[in-house]
Amino acid sequence: MLTTLTDRDKATLRTAAYGALSLMAATGMPHSAVTKGSLVLASSTGPVGHVLAAKTKDVVLKGKTVAELADRVLPALTASVNLLATQDRVEAGNFRGTVLAAIGAGARPRSTEPDYLAAEMIRKITAALDAGDNSGVLPASAWPDARKLQKTLDDIVDSGFTGITLRVRDAQGEWTGSAGVSVLGETAKPPIDGHIRIGSNTKTFTATLVLQLVAEGRVGLDTPVATYLPEFGLDERITVRMLLQHTSGIFNFTGEYFPDGTIVAGIAATPSGKEWVDNRFRTYQPDELVRVALSKPARFEPGAGWSYSNTNYVLARLLIEKVTGRPVAQEMQRRILGPLGLTGTVAPTSQTEIPAPHAHAYYRYEDAGEQRTVDVTEHNPSWISSGGDMISTTRDLQTFISALNSGKLLPPELLDEMRAPHPTGIPGMDYGLGVFVQDTGHGTVITHNGGAAGHGALMFSTPDGSKTLTAALNYVDDAEMSLSAAFQTALQRLVEEVFGGGQSDPADLMS
Question: What is the dihedral of CA 284, 287, 289, 293, to 10 degrees?
Fold first, then answer.
């Protein structure tokens, strides 16, 4: 516990936290947002909360230019995290999260255009907080079972993956590790907090956004989707809940896989060979993907079964855009990424680049009888749309899944709805609304994993958000998903070592 903070230490914490708000105000953040941010700081819990609530005259920041403020506040943010981490790693994380929550309103655009000045200031503030965060990361020698975790990472690479980075956090602190390489043929390891295409983890972000609209009364969870999107002629029995739960029966535009081995192909854009490689920079419109899906027979009657379908989440994206009148990327920034300070997370829609640093992704296919491997790190993710197009980092995924499960993004009743288990037919793996509800044998974890053409991400959390596992993978993808079987044992071990037991289906990783 924090027992040795001097008055000067407390002044440093207050200057840093309220100074961050002053920096946001200097970018043009509305007065109402500054007031709301101050209330967030003042209502923080724990020892840090007591310090921030006792705001006194030791915070003197008025009349400063942006440069002068930055020179004082940014170092104070780093110093504050370092100071807290030497005594109580939990409170260091509490301080970081509280400051990011307070400044998050500054990322909310005041018009239909993104506020780039505010976003850049949030990036600088987050960087300053992270610069002092290493003292909250435990060395391998101090983390229980660190050797086992590292051995599992090594085994994942041995199973065929190019590289992996892991981030585990609980009440005692955080451990990070890596194995493999960032680029084929080179020796550098994947960057610990590099950017990665997170694939179907996107669905958890999208579902959260839809449920926020439900909380505001702008969307009905059990209202027919056709009410909001009449242009598609959807079956009137298909509700918003069915989209998020994968019980709509709508054909999966990336292809349907049946238990007897039958495959019904979807769009040619799905990574399945040379055709995808040659056309990987093409832009697909969301309504185009939906219409391809609707041209195929439904898998089952609405509500009569469960089947994972990317089409459901493209429709969810279109619903968000119809109801809000804003692009999904802008709404994601306004409601989730900005408030949580997720500066490493992007909803690219059709943007081909991925921010540095990042590991490279590869795709292998056969051409004229020869195996070819191509770097596909940059490609147009519109082929998967909001079924899996987002980019993030292990740190941002950790922040997001912890905030979601601890109740910071949704009211309790909707968080319960989100995590209410629906049978999927996968042993130990039920599905809620945008999340898998997994029975580990020793408790429940909330999870979603995803992969997208040589990049993948894992995201696990206890139901209270207090313990998380996030990971980023880079690999050589192929149409046969040949890495799935080799990866299964290592992934099971990883979840067991962190959460005390459980299984994960590698198909979820590769979806």
Answer: -170
Sole residue written with tokens 């292809």: 255
Q: What is the pTM of this model?
A: 0.76
DSSP type of residue 404: H
First-to-last CA distance in the chain?
43
What's the Cα-to-Cα distance from 292 to each of 101, 231, 247, 371, rounded to whole Å? 40, 14, 19, 30
Largest interatomic CA distance in the chain: 75
CA-derived radius of gyration, the chain: 23
Q: Which residue has the tokens 């040795």?
A: 4
The answer to whether the bond into 357 is cis (omega within 30° of 0) is: yes
- Asked whether the beta carbons of 282 and 269 are under 8 A apart, the reply is yes
Q: Which residues fall within 8 angstroms of residue 71, CB to CB, at 6 or more apart?
A: none
Q: How confident is the model at residue 39, as a pLDDT?
A: 78
What residue type is 12 in one-letter code? Answer: T
**Left if phi > 0, otherwise alpha if psi is -120 to 50, otherwise beta: which for 9?**
alpha
Q: In 3-state terms, what secondary structure has residue 248?
A: coil
Give the count of beta carbons closer than 10 Å to the beta carbon of residue 36: 14
Give the strand pairing for 362-367 and 476-477: parallel
pLDDT averaged over consecutive 10-residue blocks of the chain (511 residues)? 74 85 78 75 77 71 72 85 75 78 58 56 79 55 70 89 92 84 91 91 97 97 97 97 97 82 69 78 93 93 95 98 95 89 87 89 86 91 92 93 93 96 88 94 90 91 93 87 70 84 40 43
CB distance 449 to 504 below 8 Å:
yes
Contacts 24+ apart (CB under 8 A), 176-182: 176/137, 176/394, 177/140, 177/146, 177/149, 177/150, 177/153, 178/153, 179/150, 179/153, 179/154, 180/153, 180/156, 180/474, 181/359, 182/358, 182/359, 182/360, 182/474
**Cα within 13 Å of Cα(468), Cβ side:** 26
Looking at residue 34, its amino acid is: V
- List the Cα angle 231/232/237 in 5-degree steps: 115
pLDDT digits (tens, 9 = 90+) for 403-442: 999 999 999 999 999 999 999 888 888 999 999 999 888 8
Contacts 24+ apart (CB under 8 A), 263-269: 264/296, 266/292, 266/293, 266/296, 267/292, 267/383, 269/383
Positions marked catalytic = 200
Give, as one character, the DSSP assignment of residue 334.
Answer: I
**Pair of tokens at residue 497:** 């070592």
Contact between 160 and 483 under an 8 Å Cβ cutoff? The reply is: yes
The CB density around residue 290, as the number of other CB atoms within 10 Å, is 22
